[in-house]
Automatic annotation (TrEMBL), chain A:
Protein name per UniProt: ABC transporter ATP-binding protein
SMART domains: AAA
ABC transporter domain residues: 15-246
Recorded coiled-coil stretches: none
From TrEMBL, chain B:
Keyword Transmembrane: yes
Keywords: Cell membrane, Membrane, Transmembrane, Transmembrane helix, Transport
Source species of the chain: Albidovulum sediminis
Name assigned to this protein: ABC transporter permease
Lineage of origin: Bacteria, Pseudomonadati, Pseudomonadota, Alphaproteobacteria, Rhodobacterales
Keyword presence, Protein transport: no
Locations listed in the record: Cell membrane
Length: 259, 275
């Protein structure tokens, strides 16, 4: 079988979302947040999810992470339905969520240790990813000694260290200043390329979405408008000032009724 | 930046000038910290010898230290220290051994905490001293009732602080651990427990203070040994310097307990220092 289909075999990290529904009850009123989401993400692809505040981006990501159960519909990873948390996925939150009593190395090794890797091996691997996110030299620092951007890198390194097939990111750069954000976007792009992971990124920054993603999922708040999927057919590495880039950004902004 | 200062290698023998400067610096900061205390003691001594103070109530410090020395040399005060340490130590240890695990358990399981909280609040608000007669009725006037009343009062600070610490653990950190597949046990061991340590220490320090407070009260009622007894007894017999010597020892005991706990806390919570 491997011989007959040498190239078309799906890369690991394929995500299929089928007819996903999720609602919450808020003050006795039912709130349909996810209304039949369908999405097919190829292994190694980068998808950005954008949409107005409260449209359900975080909810979708939490369902994908297994932190929340859908009311209806399926999430399949590499063709198999998944329920709950699993080893193929790692989550990067808006806040770094570091354990303040652990050093950078111990924090980065945390995920591996929890999954049963022995301390020494985990630390070794952690050091590799600490260098990858550009924090070499800070291995023994404590979280309180790091800047916001550095702390977020530690969180990213921790997620990478468990070598997930799928990286789920919820506004990972949302709390950073503009300059740090640009650098981190470049680094995320590089890391994504080097690691070959599937990346599903929630962001409210349209430029970030265009810079990083292969496709953008635009979610809407009102039930009348369906979700849309926009293909970003741009060469990489991406140039923010290229006319195609600017044009895409304008188009995406128009989707939100801006301009 | 901070890293460089953290990782400064041990300097090899600094020059004398630097040592002198450091000593002067230490002297200045020492004066800023202990100057007032020294002033107070000097004022006491001078006031007492000069007759500004009633010397029978506030005897000069040298008399107090002479009484202290006599008591220690003869072994009489040593005996009192030993029995007092035993009572408060036993009670404190029991409170810790029961309070911390119970607090960790109660803080974790909402239903348990919910059911036990009203009775806890009720007991806590009932003064241990008011209950002392009850304990005496139940346990007699011997060691058991003394240790128990101290234990009773000491239990609540550490128990409540532990519950509070566990309940206040950042949910986001727990969720983070869960996304890596951590089991309940792992979350407890690697997130909840370390995150609660600082507030457990707050409880321990409060408990230690309470233990000494109750020790003295318990020893003033129906005891014939112990530092608290010695304070009362010396007063009855008008051995005022001895009374102050016992008070001084009690203060020292409190300082030592606090110092031990603070040192331990520093060692365990080094990560919280820089905040
Ligand atoms: N646990 C919950 N219980 C009740 N309602 C919830 C819960 N989680 C989310 N919601 C509701 O679901 C809606 C979508 O929330 P969600 O956090 O997914 O939005 P979002 O798109 O991530 O918004 P933002 O861009 O502001 O982060 C909101 O109206 C929110 O109030
Ligand atoms: Mg959100």
């Amino acid at each position: 079988m491997v011989l007959t289909e040498p190239i078309t075999r799906p890369a690991a990290g394929e995500v299929t979302i089928r007819d996903l529904f999720k609602s919450f009850t808020l003050n006795g009123r039912r709130l349909d947040v996810l209304r039949g989401i369908d999405l097919q993400v190829r292994g190694g692809e980068a998808i950005a999810i954008v949409g107005p505040s409260g449209c359900g981006k975080t909810t979708l990501l939490r369902v994908l992470a297994g932190l929340e159960d859908p009311d209806r519909g399926d999430v399949l990873i590499d063709g198999a339905p998944v329920h709950g948390i699993g080893n193929q996925r790692a989550v990067i939150f808006q806040e770094p969520r570091l354990l303040p009593w652990l050093t950078v190395t111990q924090n980065v090794a945390f995920g591996l240790e929890v999954r049963g890797t022995d301390r020494i091996k985990a630390a070794e691997k952690a050091r590799h990813y600490i260098r990858l996110v550009g924090l070499g030299g800070f291995e023994e620092a404590y979280p309180c000694q790091l800047s916001g951007g550095m702390a977020q890198r530690v969180g990213i390194a921790r997620a990478l260290t468990v070598q997930p097939e799928i990286l789920l990111l919820d506004e990972p750069l949302g709390a950073l200043d503009a300059m740090t954000k640009l650098t981190m976007q470049e680094e995320l792009s590089r890391i994504w390329r080097e690691e070959g992971v599937t990346m599903i990124l929630v962001t409210h920054d349209l430029e970030e979405a265009i810079y990083l993603a292969d496709r953008v999922l635009v979610m809407s708040k009102d039930s009348g408008t369906p979700t849309r999927l926009i293909d970003l057919d741009l060469p990489r590495p991406r140039d923010r000032s290229a006319p195609v880039f600017v044009a895409l950004r304008r188009r995406l902004m128009a989707e939100f009724g801006l301009h | 930046m901070t890293l460089e200062t953290l990782e400064t290698p041990a300097l090899s023998a600094p020059p004398a000038r630097v040592v002198a400067a450091r000593l002067a610096q230490a002297g200045r900061s020492g004066f800023a910290r202990y100057g007032l205390l020294a002033g107070f003691l000097i004022l006491w001594q001078v006031g007492s010898t000069q007759g500004w103070l009633n010397a029978t109530v506030f005897p000069p410090l040298d008399l107090i230290f002479a009484a202290l020395w006599d008591g220690l040399a003869s072994g009489a005060l040593i005996d009192d220290i030993a029995i007092s340490l035993q009572r408060s130590g036993l009670a404190f240890a029991a409170a810790v051994v029961l309070g911390i695990p119970l607090g960790l358990f109660m803080g974790q399981i909402r239903a348990v905490e919910h059911a036990l909280d009203p009775i806890l609040q009720f007991f806590r608000q009932t003064s241990a001293l008011a209950l002392y007669p009850v304990f005496i009725l139940l346990l007699g006037l011997g060691e058991a009732s003394k240790v128990f009343v101290i234990f009773w009062a000491t239990l609540f600070p550490v128990l409540l602080a532990t519950i509070g610490g566990v309940k206040e653990v950042d949910r986001k950190l727990i969720e983070m651990a869960r996304t890596y597949g951590a089991t309940r046990g792992t979350v407890f061991r690697r997130v909840v427990l370390p995150a609660s340590v600082p507030s457990i220490f707050v409880g321990l320090r409060l408990s230690a203070t309470t233990a000494l407070l109750l020790l003295i009260a318990a020893e003033m009622i129906g005891a014939n040994r112990g530092l608290g007894f010695q304070v009362m007894n010396a007063q009855y017999n008008f051995q005022i310097p001895l009374m102050f010597a016992a008070i001084f020892l009690l203060a020292l005991l409190g300082l030592a307990a606090n110092f031990t706990l603070v040192t331990l806390q520093r060692r365990l919570c080094r990560w919280a220092e820089a905040n």
